[in-house]
Design goal:
Protein name: Lipoxygenase domain-containing protein
Largest sheet: 5 strands, antiparallel
GO molecular function: metal ion binding; oxidoreductase activity, acting on single donors with incorporation of molecular oxygen, incorporation of two atoms of oxygen
Cofactor: Fe cation
Radius of gyration: 27 Å
GO biological process, one term: lipid oxidation
Number of helices: 13
Distance between the termini: 42 Å
Helix content: 25-40%
Bound molecules: fe (ii) ion
InterPro entries: LipOase, LipOase_C, LipOase_C_sf, LipOase_Fe_BS, PLAT/LH2_dom
Length: 510
């Protein structure tokens, strides 16, 4: 659009979408606005926008491409300082926060629907149709227990026929080495800890586990040699359990001791499950498969509520909302793309037990969220943690959720239908199935996890489409890492692809 007036140097440009009678009131997406001093002048000044504009927005102010990111102290013109100061009051009104569930717990954005976020922040994920789920539908009405392992195997065959990982799991799901493998390569690699002393709440002695250690060694020696690990689900102790199919389900707070053998295998060697405030210590010879199921069931809860929802979705939402409210669009941190997530999970009282959200206090594990940053390095570390949590960590804990059906049905039950019990003698196959979720609830969980694990059609890989030089360098590094991971995976019977940068999304999207 030509102008006859001399406008001088253009540093700020106002754009407005006006409703026209007879035309629908549609949102328009603006890439950028280009300005020439005259039609003969080859030089073009670009004012990037990259956002949807609505008639209700009024004037949208755009800055020159040469200065789309800037700290306040680096502003040289009063008009631009005023611009950034005008930006925030509206944002703090639009993006309010509220406690997610409890006053003392984490907060989330205070909006009733995704559409309230407006076109620039709402995102509808486009996904491929889920494969092999139609067969689940025929089981979804059945409110009875699975009748036998054979029935499960048949069910599994429909799912696993073209899936090499599922076939591997079908063959190995009862083995201790596969249990240990999943502690590091499954969907929740965050719980396992190397230990050098036995925790006081684990009633295990060196003598008890001697049969599972090398003949010439002891538990103390193995701990000293950094070969002993612990899974501790004490955080679940006394949590109220859900009702499924109108029936009470049960939670445990087990502890599981693992040993890394000289053959390079990580295996569980003792499991302790609490029963009515007493401990049931389970060693290799007693109800071993059932004990492993209790551990994996607890891992499922911790994975969904803490590792997945709280540490990726909610931390992303909290930081994104704070950035939107407190930082003008021109601030470099505002450019860190963090998308909103759904908030329909139940975190219950678990959130109040988390040191992660004890703001301002340093936890023993150094996980406290600081109330302020004293140096740029401190802030950089925190922002890196947020980017990692919303991209790589989320990819690892989200897309690995359905490695196979049988694994989720048996070894990793979503709920336990009976409380832990101290049964003498061997446990029959029928006993084991009485602990597992009923057919319909198993299938429902599987359907949801299948959906969550599907990649999006509009998948945006981490750092892709970057226009900032520094990010381009990171993108090149990520490509090299992806190649190294692909080479390593080509040598593995069970490849681990979730942390390959070409599988990591730019942000939390599902
Ligand atoms: Fe997710």
């Amino acid at each position: 659009m030509p102008s006859n007036k001399e406008v001088g140097i253009v540093v700020l440009l106002k754009l407005r979408l006006e409703a026209q009678p007879g035309f629908p009131d549609l949102d328009w997406h603006c890439g950028d606005v280009q300005v020439r001093r005259s039609s003969e002048d080859p030089e073009v000044e670009v004012f990037p926008c990259h956002k949807w504009i609505r008639t209700a927005d009024g004037n949208v102010e755009l800055r020159n491409a040469k200065k789309v990111m800037c700290l306040k102290k680096k502003e040289t013109l009063a008009i631009l300082t005023n611009h950034r100061e005008r930006d925030l009051p509206t944002k703090t009104t639009v993006y309010q926060v509220k406690p997610f569930l409890l006053i003392n717990g984490p907060h989330c954005v205070d909006m009733s629907s995704v559409t309230a976020l407006g076109p620039n922040f709402s995102y509808i994920r486009q996904r491929y149709p889920v494969n092999n789920v139609h067969y689940i539908k025929s089981f979804i009405e059945r409110r009875t227990s699975w009748s036998s392992l054979q029935e499960l195997e048949t069910f599994f065959l429909f799912n696993g026929r073209e899936n090499t990982i599922a076939k591997y799991v079908q063959a190995h799901w009862q083995e201790d080495a596969f249990f240990g493998y999943q502690c590091l390569n499954g969907c929740n690699p965050l719980c396992i800890r190397q230990i050098h002393n036995l925790p006081p709440n684990l009633s295990v002695t060196s003598e008890m586990v001697r049969p599972f250690l090398p003949e010439d060694s002891s538990l103390e020696q193995e701990m000293e040699g950094r070969h002993v690990y612990l899974l501790d689900y004490e955080v679940l102790d006394q949590l109220p359990a859900n009702t499924v199919n109108d029936k009470q389900t049960y939670l445990a707070a087990p502890l599981c001791l693992l040993h890394y053998s000289r053959q390079g295998e990580l295996k569980p060697i003792a499991i302790q499950v609490k029963i009515l405030n007493r401990f049931l210590l389970i060693l290799f010879w007693l109800h071993w498969l059932l004990a492993k199921m209790w551990v994996r069931n607890s891992d499922f809860q911790v994975h969904q509520l803490l590792s997945h929802f709280l540490r990726t979705h909610l931390i992303g939402e909290v930081c994104c909302t704070a950035a939107l409210r407190q930082l003008p669009e021109i601030h470099p941190l505002h450019q860190v793309e963090t998308k909103f997530s759904s908030k329909n999970h139940a975190v219950l009282t678990l959130t109040t037990r988390l040191l992660l959200f004890s703001c301002g206090e340093s936890s023993p594990e150094g996980q406290g969220v600081p109330q302020s940053f004293q140096t740029a390095a401190e802030m950089c570390k925190f922002v890196t943690m947020v980017i990692f949590s919303c991209s790589a960590l989320h990819a690892a804990v989200n897309f690995s959720q359905v490695c196979s059906v049988i694994n989720k049905l048996t070894e990793v039950p979503a709920a336990m239908s009976r409380p832990p019990s101290q049964t003498k003698g061997s446990v029959s196959e029928e006993d084991i199935f009485s602990f597992l979720p009923e057919v319909n609830s198993s299938c429902h969980v599987l359907s949801v996890l299948s959906l969550l694990s599907q990649p999006a059609i509009d998948f945006v890989p981490l750092c892709s489409g970057a226009t900032v030089k520094l990010v381009e360098e990171v993108w090149r590094e990520l490509k090299m890492i992806a190649k190294d991971i692909a080479d390593r995976n080509s040598q593995l019977e069970l490849p681990y692809t979730y942390l390959s940068p070409d599988h990591i999304e730019n942000s939390v999207t599902i």
